[in-house]
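Q: Predict the bound structure with adenosine-5'-triphosphate.
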Amino acid sequence: MLRIENLTKSYGSRLVLQGLNLHVRVGEIYGLLGSNGAGKTTTINILCNLLNADSGTIAINNQPVSKATRSLIGIAPQENLLYKSLSCAENLRFYGKIYGLKGKHLQQQVVLSLEAVNLGQRANSVVETLSGGMQRRLNIAVALVHQPKLIILDEPTTGLDIEARYEIWDLIRRLQRQGITILLTTHLLDEAERLCQRIGILKNGNILAEGTLEALKTRVKAEEIVTLKAADEKVLIDRANELGFVHRYYSDDLSFWMPKHLELAEIISCFEGIPLDSISRQPVRLEHIYLEVTKE
Ligand SMILES: Nc1ncnc2c1ncn2[C@@H]1O[C@H](COP(=O)(O)OP(=O)(O)OP(=O)(O)O)[C@@H](O)[C@H]1O
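A: Predicted complex:
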């Protein structure tokens, strides 16, 4: 669906994209992860033809990106692009017209996009009277109004409460079931874990790792992560080294990569003689993979 090859972009002397390669397959939800300043928005702006790349190629549905491919893509940018004093339907009519929709077809698309984001009952509500979650959903409706094949959601749930976030996650899954391909950027690793079939990790304008969550898990050579608390962490680390366990700090948490699943009693016996305050265990998560990949 989307093929980006060797994309480069500089702002003045600052090289922001350094030969970026990224492939989004038809029908998938692809999660593009990266820290602030990694180059996600720059990539999206180039995709939407709002910014020119210095070099590289982008193809959508096997066509080079151009004004002609604009209608294949819908974008819901990070900042809602909504006219707050207009109603939901008026906003959608405005954006629909930009994509050349008119008359009955425009009206139908306005209704369908509002229904798609569960705002069918709020067509005439003025945007500033809607909750933050509803405004985010309307922002997604704008991306859908011209029936694109690929939609780009730039941090769709940032700043929303958990219920509004669930609603947007359900919406994204529904859109995928309708056959829309989705490229999503997020800082929320659990969002990417829940929604995305494949994930790309971007740093300094390069994709450092890409694949399914299962494939990315090979970056962390552990069956599970065990976090231990003890008065003397150095003793724990020395013991872990003797046993061949890799250790990492996740924030303040001293954690160990377990090469195989151990019963609780076995973990305790590994650290025998060291008074432990607590033991907690968790599977390898995207958070662990992300930290490993981006520190390389
Ligand atoms: N118009 C511009 N002029 C100069 N530098 C820019 C411009 N736009 C972005 N940058 C710089 O390019 C780098 C990449 O920015 P970009 O907005 O693409 O990152 P991002 O991954 O989207 O970050 P965030 O998660 O914070 O949105 C940053 O260092 C940013 O400061």
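A: The chain has two domains: 2-211, 218-295.
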